[in-house]
Amino acid sequence: MNNINKNIEFSIFTFMLALILVGCSDNDKKVYITFGDIDERTTQNTPVVSRDSSTDSAINTEITPSTEENVLQDSPEYAANNEWELSIQDSETAYEMCVRALTDYYKAVWNGSDIELDTFIDNKNLKQYTQKKIQSQYDVNGKFNDKVQNIEISAWEVEYTDDVDRGFLYLKLPAEIKKTVGSYGEATEFLVRNVNGKLVIVDWYTGAKDSYDFMLRGENLTIDNPNIWNDSEWVKKLNSKQIEFSGSTR
Q: Cα dist. 220→78, 190, 210, 225 in Å?
């Protein structure tokens, strides 16, 4: 009887030890960001993008055309990591939002596609400027039967700056705009804030030579003022320039 009891106790101990080991392995699991070939027979060069489950680290990744397309097909809410503040940890979400905004913009000015600016912009002055910008550029480009298929972003930059309004992110996205035939490239700069827990674009400037922003706002600007669209006098002057520019292009 003692031997039977000992065998039963040993079996229970072994079972409990196995459960403990399984639990420990799950809790201690680390997930890494990996790119390139892991096993050509199984991955077919598909990038595996993951994150450590216990911490959020600064993002330094490249979104490939296949994953970028999936991002653009969805309409996620661009929520900040923390409802009450902004940090460099919001870089990836801010990047996805700006890529989506930029892609929708180019398709609007070349293809006549819809763009939901409310998804990206909260400031009414920036929204009105962007709407007029899109209409003006569509008047010029929409007559060409040369549609934008997608955009690809090369090495992009992100920088966080703290201020009295809980900080902002600066992003620079060099884009290659892929069209039905050929492509062209230009870089766009964005400033992003956290407004009530949601990431929004508070400034948006494309400074390529002869671009709309280049001609209306000026060349070689330093994009570092997230409150510029709250400056009523500056906005009023820019609106006048827009009206003059629209008249000259018709």
A: 30, 15, 12, 14
